[in-house]
Amino acid sequence: MTSKKEAEERKLExxxxxxRLAEMREDKRRREEERRRNxxxxxxxxxxxxxxxxxxxxxxxxxxxxEPVGIPSLPPIEQSPAAKSDSQAIFSSE
Length: 94
Description:
Elements: H1 2-46, H2 59-66, H3 81-92
């Protein structure tokens, strides 16, 4: 009779240990998932992904950046000979 009781106690203890192990695994999985989410969030912030819409440069800002290195912000637009004669005809007819 005692061996049946001992067997049942061991069985119950084994079930408790299995349950505890399952809880530990679930806790570990949750912590790992939270760590991953935090890492992704931090990476996004460091890369500027979470800082809102991308900034655009104004023409004035672009001029300030390019001028010290000697690059004109707006390159001169050359007209073809045909376009020059067309524009001269338009302006002379007025």
